[in-house]
Specification:
Layout (H helix, E strand, L loop, with lengths): L2 E3 L1 H9 L4 H7 L2 E4 H8 L5 H9 L3 E4 L4 H11 L3 H12 L4 E3 L3 H9 L4 E2 L1 H10 L5 H13 L6 H15 L7
C-alpha cells in the first residue's frame, strides 16, 4: 500500500505520541519535501523535528513535476505542502492521502483520491485492534487538549464506531 501524508496528520499524531500507528497500519509513509520542511524548519519545534527525522518509515520524496505543484497551488489557494502532497499522491499512484484540511481534502476528492485524516487513522487503528476504544477516546481528548480541531462529521463518525464497542455482544467484549 502506498500512502502519502500532508503535515497536519503527522503533527496531530506527534502531539498524542501515536506516530507509531502509521507504521503499524501502513508500513511506510511518503511525504513530499515541502511537508518535511514544514515539519522540521521551525527551531521552536526541534523535539518534534527530531522525531520526524528519526522515523525510518517516513520517506521524503521529491515531486517530479514542480510545475504541477505550482499550478495546483495557484488554482486552488492550497499551501505548498498540501499541493505537493496531492501531486505526490498522483505521481506515486498512492492508495491513500493523509490530510486533515477541508479545502485540501475537497480538492483531493475531486481528483479521485482516497483521503484519510487523523480521525480516520484512529478509526483504522481501532478496527485493526491497534487501539482500544478507551485509547481512542484518550487520543481524541489529547488532540483537543493540544488545540487540534476535530470536524463534527468526523468526530460523530468516530463516536458511532466507539458506540458499537459499547453495545452488548460487540466484537471487543
Amino acid at each position: 500500500m502506498i500512502v502519502v501524508s500532508d503535515t497536519t496528520p503527522l503533527i496531530s499524531l506527534l502531539k498524542i505520541d501515536r506516530m507509531g500507528l502509521l507504521e503499524k497500519l501502513f508500513g511506510q509513509v511518503l511525504i513530499p519535501q515541502a511537508v518535511f520542511d514544514e515539519l522540521t524548519a521551525d527551531e521552536r519545534f526541534k523535539f518534534e523535528a527530531d522525531q520526524i527525522r528519526g522515523k525510518q518509515f517516513i520517506k521524503v520524496k521529491t515531486v517530479k513535476n514542480p510545475e504541477y505543484t505550482s499550478l495546483l497551488k495557484r488554482a486552488t489557494g492550497l499551501d505548498q505542502g498540501e499541493s505537493e502532497a496531492i501531486i505526490l499522491t498522483d505521481e506515486q499512484n498512492a492508495d491513500v492521502l493523509l490530510m486533515d484540511e477541508a479545502k485540501g481534502r475537497m480538492v483531493s476528492f475531486q481528483m479521485g483520491f482516497k483521503v484519510m485524516g487523523t480521525i480516520g487513522i484512529l478509526i483504522a487503528a481501532y478496527e485493526e485492534n491497534e487501539l482500544t476504544a478507551d485509547e481512542v477516546r484518550e487520543c481524541v481528548e489529547g488532540l483537543q487538549r493540544a488545540g487540534r480541531h476535530i470536524g463534527q462529521k468526523h468526530y460523530r463518525m468516530l463516536l458511532d464506531k466507539l458506540n458499537d464497542y459499547d453495545k452488548p455482544n460487540s466484537r471487543n467484549q
